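[Backbone geometry]
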Amino acid sequence: MAKFIQNNLRNFLVILIIFSLAISWIFLTPDINVQANPAEYLNNPSFDGGTTGWTLTTTAYDDTYYQDTAGSIETSCVERNCKSTGDAEQTIGTDINSTDTVLLSLYWSKRSVVLDCKANNIRVEIEKPTTPGVWDVIWSDITIPAFNGATEWTPVSSEDVSSYFTDTGTYNIRFYADVRGGVLASNECLAWFDNTSLDVTAAANETPTLTVSQPDGVDDTVTVGQSYNITYTLSDTDDDVTAAFYYDTNNTGLDGIAITGPCATAAEGTNVTCAWDTTEMTPGDYYVYGITNDGVNPDVSDYSPGQITIQAVSISITITTDGDVAYGIVGEGNSQDTTASGVDDTQTVKNNGNVAEKISIKTSNAIGGTDWTVGSTAGTDIFVHSFATTTAETWQILDVVGTYEIASSSVAVNGTLDFDLKITVPTASTDDVEKTVTVTFLAEQAQ
């Protein structure tokens, strides 16, 4: 301690600063593809129940001539140079996908009476969902039976017409006939369809793929409360899928705990990430796995190749300088500081924790003899104590004992904060006893 010295201009030997540290501790604890069986997409395809499900134009139901056990549909014309076009049309009740396999089957028959027909054209046509009003031919026959001849029931068996179904959606289909007679009044031309079928097989549904690449155990350490990006690749060629992620103490069993937030419904992508908020996690080492499902195939899952280490929050600071400031002899009502133009004793606080820290500072009263009370303006036995950081050289008054003022809202891990102190001594003092002030720093986890 230095001795107090008095002369005609009253001076004070002040002040030996004793630093203390306060720490706010935080303790936290094989692919399978599914293919549908072929399905009949036509309603009443064999006309056994009459023409239910069909809209007929000119074409008529024939209950006397048929290929199987009941009626058929017939288009005919009778008389000299007759002409008749007709069809049976139906809206297919189930959507067809452009990737489906579509097989057409039917029986047809034709007849010419008295003379050869001038034409006997039959065809099957579809109307696509994207081109209404346009009919595309998917099968046809233009043969004409000979004079007084007939073509008996002729099969078309499982002809692949998939290439015509290039849209996905609702199609219309029609069985169409165009018959034209000869020059005699007794001429007849006839055409029939029966026992039709449109078998549709849905394309194989591909299994989604999922790969979790991070964490891989390399540099995968975070502190409780920090965010961690899980890296993964998720895709499905024919469905929109998401993945749900979990953390687990091992890499088997799929018996972990669900991760909430974005990682609960992570979208498709290649080497994309979802952010895992580790707030309230129990510190430890964890594997991460994901599960996805396309609603058709079995679940697909994958574990991360390595673990993530989630460590508890550690709050720690130290004064890396000497921690003592001697202001020396200061005249009544005058000031002294630790800057280079003052006593040149800037102090430094270092963040030794594992998270960014908020650093705050407070002062005590000046102790020794008759205490000096800290205040915002110097007076009798009242002194002013201020601080400034080198990043913001603005003096901030510490005018309330025990109240912390923020020196920095965030100091990075292993980062430092340089600060200066300034004292303005009382305008009058009761005694000449040396005074001591304690400055305390508080570290808290930065927000």
